[in-house]
From TrEMBL:
It comes from Streptomyces polychromogenes. Residues 81-458 form the Solute-binding protein family domain. CDD domains: PBP2_NikA_DppA_OppA_like. Residues 1-24 form the signal peptide. SUPFAM superfamilies: Periplasmic binding protein-like II. It comes from the Bacteria. Keywords: Signal. This is ABC transporter substrate-binding protein.
Length: 541
């Protein structure tokens, strides 16, 4: 959830089903498939033009994942970065990184993917005059301050001085300071390459992008109707698409999409409506995918806007201990969300089972004692904000009821019409109540669950809506950044995690699960940790 203009929110659409009967899909050894053919899949309308540097939401990222290939991809099992377009990414100090590219990758217009393709894209994304959503991702590179000096100021450079092209296959990235997770970060769509054609008209490009991935555009984006892609025959053979084409059919209603899946008008639906929960696994059997996702749901606390109520860590811990996470997961989400026990997702390296310790365990008696000993909150009243355009009302009301029962305080749920309305109020510090928030990872690293949500820089360019500030936390992050050993770096990020666990600026409540269903017409269907379909490997049965 990083960048200058918006955040990647786990907005709370329920895409889950009954855990007791769930199973993984797409890897049935008996399933057979054949190459060729066309399928249709569900999509919502992307927010912006299809440019990696200006996409911070899941729908646009889904299409970009089919159209582009980055320097690295992520292992399906471990979430570790693995080389894709990059032949090597090397550093000796975590500050200066040398990137060498593989041969064989071309853009869909035949242009070779070279070092300039990446430098071109990153310079555009880093320039504040382009107002790209991913601008903040380039802030670690030398020269970013000149390209993005801040509101009311004009850039004094046109290129990042920390990017140097050595030859057509090699470029060097110099960061402002060591950052051990830089290689892992490079799989995010902000770092996708762009061809020369992009420079002529970026807005026009976003309507029919020329990528370097296994699929290419098949015509232009038909807004609010569909986006069609077709197999790119010159993609490297080991990752070439099996299908001839895919139509992303655009829906504004999950119920309608699910009905079309049941009728065979769609072959894959990657988000399921609430009314599908009781029967989806029985109806689709092994063609129902249910697996952990890398998102976490929190109760956020306005530490600066309402210090009187939430300024004491003992009060925050008492609130955390008064929430029955297991009951919410079972009764509200039918067992399909899991109680959170760390600020880091269970599917990301660095997660520790039970890391929240006592704060993550339901103990209403001790919670009440701690709360009263700390002096409670003024008037024993608080508001609990949430976005009404997501499926959050029921669980927020459940939390409100638990806090009333277990702490003796009146909690008034406050719906905001849209997520943006609540974010605006939180940024301006006009709302003094607790609030529903969530986090969907940008890339699979422990750091991505810490800095973008709790650092000082995340107050202006991230998701630190409670305005949490800790010099100790900042120092721990910096120490982890400087490490050149991945295992050591993870341990150091865990120390930063421990500080957040102690301070509890947000209260982790549950981790999300992703779900998808597909018809008998297709096989080899998989969904990654970021909720994206692996369309290149899908086959017709």
């Amino acid at each position: 959830m990083r960048g200058a203009t918006r955040a990647r929110w786990a907005v709370g659409t329920v895409v889950l089903a009954m855990a007791a009967t769930a199973c993984g899909g797409g890897d049935d050894p008996a399933a057979e498939g054949r190459n060729g053919g066309h399928i249709s899949v569900r999509l919502s309308e992307p927010q912006h033009g299809l440019i990696g540097q200006n996409t911070g939401e899941s729908e646009g990222a889904e299409v970009l994942h089919a159209l582009f290939t980055g320097l690295v991809a992520y292992d399906d099992k471990t979430s570790e970065p693995k080389l894709a377009v990059a032949e090597s990414i090397e550093t000796t100090d975590s500050k200066t990184w040398t990137v060498k590219l593989k041969d064989g990758y071309t853009f869909h217009n035949g242009e070779k993917v070279d070092a300039q393709s990446f430098v071109r894209a990153w310079n555009w994304g880093a320039n504040q005059e382009n107002n790209a959503e991913a601008m903040g991702f380039f802030s670690k590179i030398e020269g970013s301050d000149e390209l993005a000096p801040g509101k009311g100021k004009t850039p004094t450079a046109k290129e990042l001085k920390g990017l140097k092209i050595v030859d057509s296959k090699t470029f060097v990235v110099t960061l402002k300071a060591p950052f051990s997770q830089f290689k892992t970060m490079l799989g995010y769509n902000a770092f996708y390459p762009l061809p020369k054609a992009f420079e002529a008209d970026p807005q026009k490009f976003g309507e029919a992008p020329i990528g370097n991935g296994p699929f290419q555009m098949d015509g232009r984006w038909e807004h609010n109707k569909q986006i069609k892609v077709k197999k790119y025959a010159k993609y490297p053979s080991d990752g070439r698409a099996k299908l001839d084409g895919v139509t992303f059919k655009i829906y504004d209603n999950l119920d309608t999409a699910y009905a079309d899946l049941q009728a065979g008008k769609l072959q894959i639906v990657d988000k399921l409506p609430v009314n599908a929960l009781p029967t989806v696994s029985q109806e689709f059997g092994e063609r129902y995918i249910y697996k952990p996702e890398a998102s976490i749901g929190y109760i956020g606390l306005p530490l600066e806007a309402n210090r009187e109520a939430f300024g004491k860590p003992e009060v925050r811990k008492a609130i955390s201990m008064a929430i029955d996470r297991d009951a919410i997961a079972k009764s509200i989400f039918h067992g399909t969300r899991k109680p959170a026990d760390d600020f880091i997702s269970p599917i990301v390296p660095g997660y520790r089972k039970g890391a929240l310790g006592e704060a993550g365990l339901f103990n209403p008696v001790k919670a009440r004692e701690l709360f009263e000993r700390a002096g409670g909150i003024p008037g024993n009243k608080m508001e609990l904000g949430y976005d009404a355009d997501g499926d959050n009302k029921e669980w927020i009301e459940a939390v409100a009821g638990q806090l009333k029962t277990n702490l003796g305080i009146e909690v008034t749920p406050k719906p905001f019409p849209k997520i943006g309305d609540m974010l605006d109020e939180l940024k301006a510090q006009n709302f003094e109540g607790a609030f529903r928030t969530g986090w969907a990872m940008d890339y699979p690293a422990a750091e991505d669950y810490l800095r973008p949500v709790f650092s000082k820089e995340a107050i202006a360019n991230g998701s630190n809506y409670g305005h949490y500030k800790s010099d100790e936390f900042e120092a721990a992050l910096a120490a982890a950044d400087r490490s050149t050993d991945p295992a050591d770096s993870t341990k150091l990020y865990q120390k930063a995690d421990d500080i957040v666990i102690r301070d509890l600026p947000y209260i982790p409540v549950f981790t999300y699960m992703s779900a998808a269903a597909y018809t008998k017409a297709v096989t080899h269907v998989e969904v990654d940790a970021q909720g994206r379909m692996d369309l290149a490997n899908v086959q017709i049965t």
